[in-house]
Amino acid sequence: MPGVEVRVWARRAEAVEEVRRMLPGVIASTDIATVMQGVSLAVLCMPIQHMPGIARQIAACELADDLIVTDVGSVKGGVVGELEDIFMSTHGAFLGSHPMAGSQHTGLAHARGDLFHQAACIVTPTAHTKPQHLARLRTFWVKLGCRIQEMTPQQHDHCVARISHLPHTLAVVTTLAALRQDARVLDSSAGGFRDTTRVAGGDPEMWAGILMQNRTEVIAALEDASSAVRELLEMLRSMDEEALRRFLAQAKALRDLLPAV
Amino acid sequence: MPGVEVRVWARRAEAVEEVRRMLPGVIASTDIATVMQGVSLAVLCMPIQHMPGIARQIAACELADDLIVTDVGSVKGGVVGELEDIFMSTHGAFLGSHPMAGSQHTGLAHARGDLFHQAACIVTPTAHTKPQHLARLRTFWVKLGCRIQEMTPQQHDHCVARISHLPHTLAVVTTLAALRQDARVLDSSAGGFRDTTRVAGGDPEMWAGILMQNRTEVIAALEDASSAVRELLEMLRSMDEEALRRFLAQAKALRDLLPAV
Q1: Which domain holds residue A14?
Q2: Inter-chain CB proximity A219 and B208 less than 8 Å
Q3: Region at A239 (left for phi over 0; alpha for psi -120 to 50; beta for the rest)
Q4: What would the pLDDT profile of A151-196 be if each residue is shown by its tens digit?
Q5: Closest chain B C-alpha to A116 CA, distance in angstroms
Q6: Which chain A residue's Cα is nearest to B211?
Q7: Among A146, A171, A184, A241, which is most exposed with the fewest C-beta within 10 angstroms?
Q8: A173 and A106 belong to one structural domain
Q9: Min CA distance, A232 vs chain B (Å)?
C-alpha cells in the first residue's frame, strides 16, 4: 500500500535474512526495539503460547502514542485478557484479530497476495477497547480484503472450535483411521480423501498448541462428533437405511448453505 | 474415440431426452433390448441395489458373443457374485469395475472429459473371470486415462471403506457436529471447513445405499475412527500436549505420503 512502511521482526537471524532476500523494500531485524520505533500497528504472528513473552518485550520498548497491537492467533479466551493487561500501562493498546485464511503450509514461501481476499476476519473487542482503535483495526483488515465479524473472545473460541478446530481434528482422525493399519490403500484414493484430509498436513507443533489452548470448546465439539459417530454406527448395525438417509440429507442441507466458490 | 459407437439406456424418458440434446451423436433409448443389440461392452451406472434387476433385463435380451458387462459401483462383495451368476448362462460375462473419480455432484451437466485422467480404477476379477475379458476391460479403462488396480471383491470393499466411505461419513459427522447447534458459525468458515466437508454435499439416497451395502467394513472403519476420537479426548482432558503433538505428527506423516496435485 502506498505510504505504508512494513517492518518485520523475527527471532531467528535466518528468518530475517529470508525476508530481506524476498522482500527487499522491507526493514527486517531481530531487534524488537528497532523494529517497534514509531510503529502504529503491530501484528503478532507466532504460536499463541509465545505471545505474552513477546508482548512484554514490546511493552518495554519506546512506543508510538497511537500504537495498536493485534494478533492472528486461533484462540482468544485467556490470551486477549493477558495481552490487554500487558499494554494497559503503555502508550499502546491490544485488540485481538483472527483472519480465517491460510493453508496447511507455513513459511514465507507460501505467502500469497490474495490470501485475505473475501476471508472472514474476526475481531474481538472487549469493554476496555476504545472505539477509535476498533475502527482503525477494522480498516486495516478491510484494506487487505477481509469481511469483518465482531465477537467476544469467548464467542470467538466457541465459533472457531466448531468451524476450524473440529474439522482439523476430524481430518486427523480420518487420516489415522484410514491409513494407520495399512497405508497402501492410499494408492486407490481420489479427490474425496484428498480434500477431506488436506488440513491434517498442518504443522503438529502449532496445532497442538491451538487445540490445547482451546481445549474446553474442542472437547465439547469432539463429544458432539463422537455422538454423531455413535448414531451412524447404530443405524448401520440395525440396518435402518431410512434413518441413515435422513442423517445424510440433514448434513447435505447444512453443507449446501455454503455458497459455491 | 474413433470407431466406437456409444449408446445410452436410461429408465426415464426425460433422461433420454437430455442425452439426445447434449450428445447428438449418441443413440439413447428407454428400451434396453434396442440399446443392447450387438454391444460388446456395457457399463452399469446406477445405485447398486438396482443392478441385479437391470442385469436380469439385459440377460433376457439378444446379446453379442463377446459382451462384457461391468459396473462403476462403490461396493463389490455380494453384488459381483450375484451379477456373475446372472450372466453365467448367457453369451456375456460380468466383471466388476470401480473408477475412483467423481464429485459431490450427479447428472450429465457435471460430466467432464478429464474425469478419469490419472484416476485409480479398481477391477475385481474372480476365479470365473476369463483372462481375455480382464485384458479387454483393462484396456477400456486405460484408454479413458485410468491407472488399473486388481483386487478381489473383498479386498476392494475393505480398501474403499477406508479411503472413500470413511472420509465420506466423517465429512458428514464434521458438518453435523459443526453446524447442527447453530449454522451461523458458517459465516466464519474458510478453506479448511470447505474442503473437509465437501463430499457431505453428495446424494443422500446413493450414499445410504453404498454405506448400507458395505456396512461390515464401514462399521470397522468407524470404530477405528471412534477410538481415535477417544484418544484425542483423553489427551485434551489430561492436557498431555506431548502426546497430542505425536498424534498430529503421525497423521501428518501419513497424509504427506499423498503426492501434491
Answers
A1: 7-151
A2: no
A3: left
A4: 999 999 999 999 999 999 999 999 999 999 999 999 999 999 999 9
A5: 10
A6: A236
A7: A184
A8: no
A9: 8
